[in-house]
């Protein structure tokens, strides 16, 4: 809003009623007259591009580098010294070189101008108590906006109502896992805006569910707009090669002119040539010193490198950037999708009676469950059978196999849930048959406060004396606290004691130290515990549950990443991980792929980074370090440190 009141208030800590007051709006939305006032105050909701260099000036710049100027002068000198053909040849070299480099960089710059395409054209709002569809650029702070699955969010805002809402914030954080959103106040004051689950941001997309929010920032004031501003206003520095060429050009110019003057004076004083002949002779000496082939040789070399980079699907905006890569001493890298495959994979299954490994990576259903190196069949292990079946039944995601139009596996929904489907297929289950075996009839969606979701299923053949069961999956500690019993795999349900609870927590802690994401699975036989259908609510479905086991998963490193990191280390190139993921997960991945090699590596969160001055940051960078839970603009700060 721009008021001091809003600047001093973290919207994530406010209740929905307080948000209406802070943003000066109401449940009926803004009035038309107020909208016009705010449009005049805040302007349109769009990204403003920084003032670009005119195309003619960009074109002209490719012919005015120090080396290019030297060639222009060299051509003139050649013409004056009666070497017309040489002068024209030098000029043509300059012209061809300038045209080539201009065309190359112009194409690359056109390919990078896509930020505005990430923002939607239309959005649904409530104004004067009526829902309306408007251009996204006409949004103002205080507008009440409706969003649903598939929508791209138009502005930053505070959620005031949600229904099973998940948002993909990868455009901001680089992390592809959808974030479950809440409309409840989060009283933690020491969070960044991106860490509040009740906030949404421009440029992100709705993965599932629906909700509505009040706009808090538009255009360049949004998180997305701040990233755009950072990318547009980065200082343009010359590459090491450009600096060396400029230095070499100055040296050549001084030497050439000095030698020319020396020979002109010598020819006049000692050989007694006429001054005009001595001058022409001196000009010839100067031209001879000018390396006409140096500039096109450098340009062609860089252009060939750009083409090689293009074959590896890397876009290089400027030719000089390729040479900069060769002078690299530090690489700052994101994690998800860069160092890892961005494909959640179940690695381990754990029960109170055994620990199992799951082979295979990614979303391809290739692999199996094994224990101590020997394959395990679900038919021979009822506890494992229930863990795999129930995990799949409580999943809402789908994995679409490659097709002629899309050669890759596509995930519809949360990748954390998608890998549970892949687990079931690896175990030999038919997904359709599993749904037929226990069709879902009710769901209590996941939310960030409960840290779990629950589904209810009917079973024609029954299970544990009941034809209806509830299945809960979620954070291990929260799910375990709902359990009074556990299934032993031998057909018996036993009471859970302190010993079993400690074993579950110990297993969860070990998986967490290994950088794995862990889900616990439990169930409750409803009829056998005398729970009638009209009593199926959150309280009854999620108490006195039977613990089944833990599912541990991770986003595996990309193939060849470890080898690439080893090559960088041998070349004395340091690699620093800068990610929006959790610190423990980031550190574990960094150790696995060799970025971190010692035991005293420091994990710095975005909140800690915000409290550091430049000197403290430089001091921290001297040791092994991993940056986690950082905002996009903080990544730029680390890179520029």
Describe the SSE topology:
Blueprint: H1 4-7, H2 16-22, H3 32-42, H4 55-61, H5 66-80, H6 84-112, E1 122-127, E2 130-135, E3 144-148, E4 156-168, H7 170-173, E5 179-180, E6 199-200, E7 205-217, H8 223-232, H9 240-269, H10 275-289, H11 294-311, H12 319-326, E8 330-333, E9 345-351, E10 354-358, E11 369-371, E12 374-375, H13 382-393, E13 398-400, E14 410-412, H14 415-426, H15 431-437, E15 440-447, E16 452-463, E17 466-474, H16 476-480, E18 483-487, E19 493-495, H17 498-513, E20 517-525, H18 538-541, E21 545-554, H19 561-570, E22 574-578, H20 583-592, E23 602-605, H21 606-610, H22 614-620, E24 625-628, H23 632-640
Parallel strand pairs: 8-22, 18-21, 22-24, 23-24
Antiparallel strand pairs: 1-2, 1-3, 3-7, 4-5, 4-6, 4-7, 9-10, 9-21, 10-11, 11-12, 13-14, 15-16, 16-17, 17-20, 18-19, 20-21
Helix pairs in contact: 5-6, 5-10, 6-11, 9-10, 11-12, 13-14
